[in-house]
DNA sequence: CCCCAAGGTTCAGTGAACGAACTGAATAGG
DNA sequence: CCTATTCAGTTCGTTCACTGAACCTTGGGG
């Protein structure tokens, strides 16, 4: 049960296709997700994603080339362009929560209001779209399996984009 | 310049990973996008996406199995679960429009207000999240290349989810 | 000076995507 | 009624990306 993705969609003139050429390859959106969660180091992505080193290396390079990540010393940090993908990552998470998961795994809380964002992506208190830096992740009951240091660090509530300490 | 995707993320316990197991394979989100645009027939997807027939067949089957599409005669139609992916598809489109494209290719207009939705995904007039069935697609200058019948049909303004006539 | 860890690169094997050719059912025409 | 043409797939050989293991390189620390 393994799948494979090609990387370009040359004959499509559509913004969705352009977007998928950048973030549509296998693993890429999970790397971006981890970056939102505060993962920044090669070895942390590696242990948290269970991804082949060669693939991680290639994906990080292509994300830097595309301008979604910035390499700051040994750290890979989301640029504004990368942070603008939050609506997509969050949309996928909320869609899966409502259609594929039996119990909630992660809840995103608008720090200013203390309220978890709704299924439509807005804060129920202030009725606005909340940028990732104003959100805190809390884990729900559906999240119990992994035991690597990164997964453990991600279990305690923390603000998005804030680097994790392992 | 071709890429490959595997299809599962077995060791990830995360809603984003679950979502990508369903819609993360190559071509899948473009098929869903076309379904929003009103494409319903095997041969219409085929000609519009330039996808190998075998891959299209496999993807459509797996989308039906996952409950995103319903097979109605020869037509593949989005279910509610599939329509709930609009925020993701639209998010990718808007992200690419603002970061990857020089000119807008498609604009989504809230029919009730007559206003194009903003970069944050809300209608500027009513400040709300608009469901796809209340949106109309208009094409911009960035969209000129393809000449197959489906691309031509999609060029005239039309309501999302409404079947195209070729 | 040696050892270790972090951050990669290289390489053989496997599996998915690709594209062309083929099948089979359902109309359409004569 | 027989044939031609779609439409909707399946089959199959080739190509290409992912996978996992081994190897390499750089930078400290003891």
| Coarse structural class of chain A | alpha+beta
| Shape descriptor of chain A | globular
Radius of gyration of chain A: 16 Å
Helix content of chain A: 25-40%
Tell me the fraction of residues in β-strands of chain A, as a range.
5-15%
Largest sheet properties of chain A: 4 strands, antiparallel
Poorly predicted ranges of chain A:
none
Q: Distance N terminus to C terminus of chain A?
A: 32 Å
Number of helices of chain A: 7
Mean residue pLDDT of chain A: 92
Provide structural commentary.
In chain A, a hairpin with a 2-residue loop joins strand 1 (69-72) and strand 2 (75-78). Chain A is built from seven helices and six strands, in the order H-H-H-H-E-E-H-H-E-E-E-H-E. The mean pLDDT of chain A is 92. In chain A, the strands form two sheets. A four-stranded antiparallel β-sheet of chain A has the order 4-3-5-6, with no helix packed on it. In chain A, strands 1-2 form a two-stranded antiparallel sheet. With 166 residues, chain A is an alpha+beta fold. Chain A is globular. Chain A has helices spanning 15-23, 28-37, 42-49, 53-66, 80-83, 86-99, 149-155; strands at 69-72, 75-78, 106-110, 115-116, 135-139, 158-159. At the A-B interface, helix 1, helix 2 and helix 6 of A face helix 1, helix 2 and helix 6 of B. The structure holds a DNA duplex (30 and 30 nucleotides).
